[in-house]
Fold:
Amino acid sequence: MAGRSHGGRLEEGRRLLAAAALVDTRSVAARLAKFKRAHQQYESLTGKVDKAERPYATQIAAIGEADAAQDVAVEALARALVGDGGARTNPFKAFGAPSPSELAAKGYAAEAKDALKLVKAVRGKKDASKATTAAAGALEKAAKSVQSAMVGVDKHKKPLAAARAARDAAALAWETTYAALRRGAKAAEDDGAKGLATRLFGGAAKPAKRATKRGAAAPAPGGGGATPAGGDTPTA
Structure:
């Protein structure tokens, strides 16, 4: 099935193997065995992806939390500098940095890098108040936390990508063996294994209902047509 999800493959594979345990599959034994191996491999590799995704997701969340703290620290430093007489429109301009809103809008790593440059410049300000000095220290800590979290996510990114690549390769084998088993089951029905494909892969599609004109009566259960207006019956 084109576009089948990973969860969909697992569900369908489990259903199919459960159905196979209840019917005579000797006519497709080799193909069924190949599919079973492919499904087990795919299920195992999907589990490895799930395992690799957990620390990666945890680290992504940590980056988000660290960045939120960094944004708060940026605003706190801006307020402290305004209190020291800095420009309200952009208290960072004197230090060669973008405005607080522009700085916060940057990507995680870029914001942290520029924030540390800003902290260094602010610390060179001889008449900085204690509030400004403290705010600069808080921003430095927050920016370094972002950088640390970024290193952590890079550590988890490579094994996650490898796990996903292996699972996707196994997905191709799953689809190939699934299709081969389905073709084999249909061929086996022609050779006398009546109902095998239906038992393994589900019922046949229902026949389409015969369309009727809007407002016309549907045919009677016996197969006869509707009685014409006026009550007369058709004549031969």
